Amino acid sequence: MNDRASELRATIGAAEWQQRVDLAACYRLVAMFGWDDLIFTHISARVPGPEHHFLINPYGMMFCEITASSLVKVDLQGRKVLDGPQDINPAGFTIHSAVHAAREDANCVLHLHSVNGIAVSAQEEGMLPLSQHSIFVLSSLAYHDYEGVALDDDEKPRLVRDLDDRRFLMLRNHGLLTVGRSVAEAFVAMYFFETACMIQVRAMAGGQRLRRIDASIIDGAQAQWESVTRGAGGGLAWPALLRKVERADPGYRT
């Protein structure tokens, strides 16, 4: 473990360090799956405890470089809580801070500019009921219209209103967002979201008439989601995903 990690672990609790490790793993996984957009987009996680503090990536680092100790702790205004060499992109925290402030269950907010996600977000009908992956998304999906680069706090109330209590948010002409009670939940949700978008793009490119899943099946998908993902937290998938990151580069834990 490097000096920075050792010093940090000595000043924070075990719960925060575990959240840092999970969040660093999530950044690495996004890079491994090819969903990252250079240094842009963000994944934020609430620091366990009574304070309204959050962890987010240092601005300028690729997702494949993120480690537990390099994550920056900020308050709801995006101000650094701990001194350190890394800064964040305040504009990048605009969307995340709005969701964290409005939703007590938003312990992790994951936002992507994936190619498939943006492609579907630019389609007038948005997500279509074409696959098993899509029914889980459609059972808890909201949309937010594009208002330009998310720099202004004025957009926050409209974003929160549109998201409401949903797990998935499609940002029109922009990208995808998931809300999780844990880092694991947000990542597994994004896997289904991005995969459903990829399936839709490929199905539409096939040129044949598309078969849509009946709405009655979508109505029961929420309960099925909880069962399939072991409580929507990726109970089976997340440990396996951590092993995948560990095999590639255990340095994310430092």
Structural key phrases:
254 residues; single chain; 10 helices; alpha+beta
What does this structure look like?
- By secondary structure, the chain is of the alpha+beta class.
- The chain has one domain (3-253): Class II aldolase/adducin N-terminal domain (L-fuculose-1-phosphate Aldolase).
- The chain is built from 10 helices and 7 strands.
- It has helices at residues 3-11, 14-32, 93-102, 115-121, 132-138, 156-163, 183-205, 215-219, 221-228, 237-248, and strands at 43-46, 53-56, 72-75, 108-112, 141-144, 168-171, 175-180.
- β5, α6 and β6 (168-171) form a beta-alpha-beta unit.
- It is globular.
- The protein starts with a helix and ends in a 6-residue tail after the last helix.
- The relative contact order is 0.15.
- The model has no long low-confidence stretch (mean pLDDT 93).
CATH homologous superfamily descriptor: Class II aldolase/adducin N-terminal domain
Head-to-tail CA distance between termini: 5 Å
CATH topology category name: L-fuculose-1-phosphate Aldolase
Helix segment tally: 10
Overall body shape: globular
Mean pLDDT: 93
Highest CATH level, the class: Alpha Beta
Low confidence ranges: none
Cα Rg: 18 Å
Structural category is: alpha+beta
Which strand order spans the largest sheet, edge to edge or round the barrel?
A: 3-2-1-4-7-6-5
